[in-house]
Amino acid sequence: MSIKILVLVFSALIISARPELIADHHLSTRISPFPSESSSNSPFIPPLPPFTAQSPAIASTSFTRVPALFVFGDSSVDCGTNNFLGTLARADRLPYGRDFDTHQPTGRFCNGRIPVDFLANRLGLPFVPSYLGQNGTIDKMFQGVNYASAGAGIILSSGSELGQRVSFAMQIEQFVDTFQQMILSIGEKASNRLVSNSVFYISIGVNDYIHFYIRNMSNVQNLYSPWLFNQFLASNMRQELKTLYNVKVRKMVVMGLPPIGCAPYYLWKYKSQNGECAEEVNSMIMESNFVMRYTVDQLNHELPNASIIYCDVFQSAMDILKNHQLYGFDEPTEACCGLGRYKGWLPCISPEMACSDATGHLWWDQFHPTDAVNAILADNIWNGRHVDMCYPTNLETMLHA
Ligand SMILES: *[C@@H]1O[C@H](CO)[C@@H](O)[C@H](O)[C@H]1NC(C)=O
Ligand SMILES: *[C@@H]1O[C@H](CO)[C@@H](O)[C@H](O)[C@H]1NC(C)=O
Ligand SMILES: *[C@@H]1O[C@H](CO)[C@@H](O)[C@H](O)[C@H]1NC(C)=O
């Protein structure tokens, strides 16, 4: 039986078997997980000068200029959203950010830059600011906004034990709000043009495993096999990508899930002897990636003019892990910052818990890679410099088309 048929059959099963979970998801687009949002309170939007396409200088002019970068996701790309939320998942204290441009914590779950910072550079754009860090005016948003929130998942309740977070559906809703503000400010035609030429970067789903499925929340393991669960995630992703498409988004980068079975937390939890990865975790992630890649492929055929690429972080990360010495890493398993075996037992919460030099480490903390790894991942997304991990093309090629 072909994959396509399998997927169809399982999708049908999901829809008929679990209406309540799906209904739950729809609710998530309406209920805000936190009391107020800066930008939607004020009905008054100050007039702005008309948007012009040639503000920042850009090194390469060989592709259509990308006016903005919009980011959705979890802690892999959060750049400060959670600083405004009541949650344990915050990276607003040192040693987070110690190797960043400002050497200050920003909310990024890294010692330095996250992949979207490197990609913004490639696109000739400034670092994209977080949505909740905005003060209600829209002028800063024309070069992009980052809606990502650490702990968030595709499922509304994923990550709930950590506290507040902005779920994927809510992030999309926040973008739709931004889009409406743009229309009020620069008109519909200019807004459509801006959005359809911009890059939308989506990196979410791993918390649906870390904080939901693997923890057997809501008895999920009894109700869903891993295969059915990843079908459920993919059908949600599909729906959200279509929502973006309907507001004129055309260029999307969908990131696959990383091999968290190799992250220090799971090495500690599964009592890894010599740094071998938790296969049970990784096999679920691989299966999920397989389905997500297929979903993206389907959407590319279904949606006219859409250019969606799927980037397999798993593949690229495993290459770095396997060939870490060639890449210049001498510590492939132990985090730079944390406590316990592999520094995977306790989260990184103080500068004393951190190694002095993170450059040889693959892992910064329990779950997140170092700046050096993020740079390699971004290079691979951009042009497949080390590993071709994006399908059907890398980002640079997609923008040339
Ligand atoms: C909002 O922030 C921008 C710069 O970040 C600043 O120029 C502007 O005055 C601020 N507006 C308000 C109302 O605080
Ligand atoms: C998941 O949790 C339910 C109760 O919440 C329990 O009955 C079931 O055995 C658990 N499944 C697994 C695989 O641990
Ligand atoms: C696709 O692109 C063509 C050429 O730019 C345009 O005429 C057409 O309206 C677009 N279709 C959709 C659905 O965006």
UniProtKB/TrEMBL annotation:
- Which keywords label this protein? Hydrolase, Lipid degradation, Lipid metabolism, Signal
- GO MF annotation list: hydrolase activity, acting on ester bonds
Q: Which residues form the signal peptide?
A: 1-19
Q: Which GO terms describe its biological process?
A: lipid catabolic process
Q: Which InterPro entries does the record associate with it?
A: GDSL, GDSL_Est/Lipase, SGNH_hydro_sf, SGNH_plant_lipase-like
According to the lineage, what is the superkingdom? Eukaryota
Q: Write down the SUPFAM superfamilies for this protein, in alphabetical order.
A: SGNH hydrolase (SSF52266)
What's this protein's family per the entry? Belongs to the 'GDSL' lipolytic enzyme family.
According to UniProt, the name of this protein is SGNH hydrolase-type esterase domain-containing protein
